């Protein structure tokens, strides 16, 4: 891949998984130019993205087709006012691009277990997690009629982290100190990754 530049490409799966976990709302691109926004859960063990959408969503017609998924992390405008060594304005950003095969989960039992896994994952941050099994059988059946559960089998996953890796370690460390002294203390996915690339 000639673009983005090699220093901005991230192949290590760990920071990519961390970004997806923190920013699960993804842009799903299909049929060449159609897209929708959906929260997706990365099942690391099986190498799949799990999700669901309304049955009338045209994405449901993509069974067996290749789709493109982009997870967007935080971004930050970098002004030349921040540091004397920052000569030009630029942006810092992080994104993960995935290419995979769309599979509509048609088996009712598998679809329900897939849905439970998704809700359990996203509810885990709540003080009192809501449980899908708390619904009545009637409500469960109604829900599953209205949605299409799916999996995206990951064929390729690439990270594009533009964090001034082409600059000197001294510049990047000074910039890191300025940014983390402001409102963006939690910006980098994660701070450990940024520091590792600074010293590598």
From TrEMBL:
SUPFAM superfamilies: FMN-binding split barrel. It comes from the Bacteria. It holds the Pfam family FMN_bind_2. InterPro entries: Split_barrel_FMN-bd, TR_PAI2-type. This is FMN-binding negative transcriptional regulator. It comes from Pseudoalteromonas fenneropenaei.
